[in-house]
Write a structure and sequence with these properties.
Layout (H helix, E strand, L loop, with lengths): L11 H20 L3 H14 L3 E2 L11 E6 L3 E6 L10 E6 L4 E12 L2 E9 L12 E8 L5 E6 L19 H4 L3 H4 L6 E5 L10 H14 L9 E7 L4 E3 L5 E4 L2 H17 L6 E6 L16 H14 L4 H10 L1 E4 L3 E2 L21 E4 L15 H13 L4 E3 L14 H5 L4 E6 L1 E2 L7 E4 H17 L1
Parallel strand pairs: 1-2, 4-13, 4-14, 14-18, 15-19, 16-17
Antiparallel strand pairs: 2-3, 3-13, 5-6, 5-10, 6-9, 7-8, 7-10, 11-12, 12-20, 16-18
The structure holds manganese (II) ion (2 copies).
One manganese (II) ion binds next to helix 6.
């Protein structure tokens, strides 16, 4: 089983299932480019399958299908199992935020006949990758009267798109002598949004024209940017990659590929011995902070609500037992081996596209610092589950020892005393505007997650 190419094991029927699954996934990442879009899409999908909002329930019983949403930006989806919740639940935890560029609070300005939005990047991006590509604006503007305006410009083929310009090579000699992290700097990332002046207006006529358009189309004022969450993301749909269509090129595989496969695993596994859960969080790319990130108490609070519904009474000890007895896969992507940059990987401990779901016992940097180093007993149990269910899996580290660095939500959930290990899909060009995954790994992750929630 160990480190074999997954493509070899599929028959015609498997390939059909794999392809259908990946078509569903491609639709998901093509439509869902913000956390809110992921939550809304998930709610729409699961309500059709009979899942009920936890706030509408008086009690729960085995087989019940439940979800809870936190502030529109993260979601838990549960199927209640036969055993009491205090026996522990099986959790798949993924993040639905992806690296991008956010709009500042006071963003709109005019310079030499162009109107711009001033931006501030979110998460670890390589800044020079984000210039001269087509960009879309997704997000919300919240008005003082409580109204929320949804914005989505650039995805429809009749929509305009936006761009961050770059210098031509003919004039780029000075710029190109800079190091990679300086060649495009944070304050250079400003979005070109307009160039037409408002007729018969003298000062800041292009900006005034933008404000007029915003007023006419969305009924918003310049001050409304102060209470907005506008995310600048690559426009366009995810596409098959390669002449053999074996891969998917798209924005936001990290970590929506693991979010979607985790969600689908919980939906498709149905009622199990234990209660099962897909936990999709926000803010992982900036440290899992805040009310909607994995550090939030919201997950514990939601579990407390479930225990209250289960027993018609809340008991703190039952919650603590539930957390300690739970098992989790931190469903997050791994750095796939790239033959063009083989020098940063240690080949025996790297993951390869097409070789299946990847387990990272640890991540971290400078000697595993800051990571969740999973229990070997737990890894033994997991690899038995993968082998018993004929799931292709591999293990990896994040690059060579002194080069690699990074983290996930694994340690945060581990702090609550549950067993956790990172398990997800290998990605190439991670955090770039277009990332690469293998369809085989998407499918193996899904199969692995189903096996885990059923048997862990
Ligand atoms: Mn990630
Ligand atoms: Mn990431």
């Amino acid at each position: 089983m160990f480190k074999k190419n997954a493509w070899n094991k599929y028959n015609e029927k498997d390939l059909k299932k794999l392809t259908d699954f990946c078509e569903d996934y491609k639709e998901f990442i093509s439509v869902c480019k913000t956390e809110r879009e992921c939550v809304n899409y998930s709610v729409e999908l699961i309500e059709k399958l009979g899942f009920k909002n936890i706030n509408t329930l008086k009690s729960i019983k085995p087989g019940d299908k439940i979800y809870a949403v936190n502030k529109g930006k993260n979601i838990c989806v549960f199927v209640i199992g036969d055993e009491p919740i205090s026996n522990g639940i099986n959790i798949l935890g993924a993040h639905i935020d992806s690296p991008r560029i956010d709009v500042k609070q006071n963003p709109l300005y005019e310079s030499e006949g162009f109107a711009y939005l001033d931006l501030h990047y979110y998460g670890g991006i390589i800044k020079y990758q984000w210039v001269t590509i087509r960009l879309a604006i997704h997000g919300v503007l919240c008005k003082k009267n409580g109204e929320i305006i949804n914005v989505n410009i650039g995805e429809n083929e009749n929509d305009p798109v936006f761009v961050i310009t770059d210098l031509l090579p003919h004039l780029g000699a000075d710029k190109l002598s800079k190091t990679g992290n300086k060649v495009v700097e944070g304050e250079d990332l400003d979005l070109t949004i307009a160039s037409m002046p408002l007729k018969d207006s003298d000062k800041e006529a292009v900006k005034k024209n933008v404000l007029k358009l915003l007023k006419d189309k969305y009924d918003i004022e310049e001050d409304d940017f102060v209470s907005a969450e506008l995310e600048i993301v690559p426009e366009g749909k995810a596409r098959d990659l390669g002449i053999d269509r074996s891969m998917i090129l798209g924005y936001g595989h990290d970590d929506r590929v693991c979010a979607y496969t985790s969600l689908r695993a919980v939906l498709d596994a149905g009622k199990c011995k234990k209660t099962i859960c897909a936990y999709l969080v926000d803010k992982e790319e900036i440290g899992s902070v805040g009310a909607t990130g994995a550090h939030s108490l919201w997950f514990q609070n939601t579990l407390a609500e479930l225990i209250n519904l289960e027993n018609n009474n809340y008991n703190d000890l039952l919650l603590r037992r539930a957390l300690s007895n739970s098992s989790m896969l931190s469903s997050d992507v791994s750095a796939g081996f790239d033959p063009l940059y083989s020098n940063v990987f240690e080949k025996k401990n790297a993951c390869f596209l097409g070789h299946g779901i990847t387990f990272n016992k640890y991540t971290g940097a400078r000697g595993k610092s800051g990571c969740n180093d999973a229990m070997p007993e737990y890894m033994a149990k997991i690899r038995k589950i993968m082998d018993d269910n004929n799931v292709n899996y591999q293990t990896a580290e994040l690059g060579k020892v002194d080069i690699g660095g990074g983290g996930t939500i694994a340690y945060i959930m581990g702090n609550q005393n549950m067993n956790v290990i990172d398990a997800g899909v290998p990605v190439m060009s991670m955090h770039a505007p277009q990332e690469v995954v293998s369809k085989a790994d998407v499918y193996e992750a899904y199969l692995g997650y189903v096996a885990f929630v059923k048997e862990a």
